[in-house]
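Need tokens for this chain, all 200 residues.
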Amino acid sequence: MGLAERRQREKLALREEILAAARELFAREGYENVSMRKIAEKIEYSPTTIYLYFKDKDEIIEQVCDQTFALLSRRLAEVVETGSDPIQCLKSGLRAYIEFGIQHPVHYRVTLMMPVDKERRKIEGTEGWKSFEFLVKAVGRCIEAGVFRETDVMALSQVLWTQVHGVTSLMITQCDCFPWIDRARLIDMCVDNAVRGLLK
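Here are the structure tokens for all 200 residues:
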């Protein structure tokens, strides 16, 4: 490996270290309470170094969210776009969403449980929107198959998202404080009931 290649790898590694530190701090302290200086202190670099990689905190949170949604999209692609039964594909996608949040609680908290400044974080065309489109496509297939009472794909997609987000958020924030039933059983029951409520 040449010197230029090694330096490029080191730069990418430091960039990822900055994002990981920021993600952890945002989840623990909240976006507003984290400064560029705090992020720099966590990785034991000067704030000046952070500014070589990111222009400001807004760019960091945007990159953190994009990374999370890209991970989620890859997981959803594995389950939603395989199989011929539209209902089963939809259920698989909803389960995968909940399990993703539980397996990546820090990512999920920062990306989907922190207040969003509408002016700071646009939605359409982002990695987050691409993830949501997996749900929209899965719901659309069910509508085309004639199995749902309603035919407003966006309304149904948002209803299902709010339901699985609620379950995911509760299981992340109350994981040690509530006597949950078996996790897999709870997820299956929530998904089955959410979809059953839309069927003809």
